[in-house]
Amino acid sequence: MGVAVPKFRIYQIEEIDFGWLNECRNLVRGYLHSSSYFTKEQTFNFLLDNKDNYWIVSLNDNRIAYIRSVIDHKSNAIMIGLDIHPTYQGKGYSKQIYRKFMKMMYDKYNIKNYYLRVLKFNIKAINLYLSYGFTVTEQTDIDFLMRYTYKDECHEGLKVE
Ligand SMILES: CC(C)(COP(=O)(O)OP(=O)(O)OC[C@H]1O[C@@H](n2cnc3c(N)ncnc32)[C@H](O)[C@@H]1OP(=O)(O)O)[C@@H](O)C(=O)NCCC(=O)NCCS
Fold first, then answer.
1. By alpha-carbon position, which residue is closest to atom 21 of ligand 1?
2. Ligand 1 centre from 90 Cα, in Å?
3. What are the residues facing 81 on neighbouring strands?
4. Residue with the nearest Cα to atom 7 of ligand 1?
5. pTM for this one?
6. Per residue in 10-22, pLDDT tens?
7. I need a labelling partner for 3 at 20 to 30 A (CA). Which of 45, 46, 77, 151 fits?
């Protein structure tokens, strides 16, 4: 028997996911630019106005992560952030999620240019982005702006479930 390949699903957030996102975000808020705690009600009201920018990642029907994205269609660019629930961190899922999301954005919207901001103390995340192929384009006292160009041919042969 072969090793089971994790089956991720990525879908636009729905109201039924708002409570889970609130819990997940509050658990990882120490790594985010705004580390404030938000109540369920605050998150709910925020997401009602911003749900186009949020995606849920599930694995075998369990929510494991969410993605924030702001697309700029004019420049085929996207600003992203991926936060994995602590229970599911450290299992090597992050790159598989990025690969799947990038293929999805390319197929759907022809998005090629990825940007993200990461706080300078977040060494694990920075190492992940560097090993994925992101490069630093700018920095401030507290964070790096990193960039990655999606190349469809680089993803050929990589199994995306
Ligand atoms: C950053 C984050 C997405 C990474 O996902 P993860 O599940 O923890 O990491 P993975 O298991 O997929 O491993 C990713 C890489 O980090 C490395 N890594 C994992 N745990 C690590 C640790 N404790 N210290 C250093 N590196 C580590 C892995 O070796 C892997 O690198 P490799 O592929 O070259 O071997 C996740 O930790 C997270 O959501 N953190 C909280 C919120 C956050 O920081 N979001 C990003 C804001 S910019």
1. 124
2. 6
3. 68
4. 89
5. 0.91
6. 999 999 999 999 9
7. 151
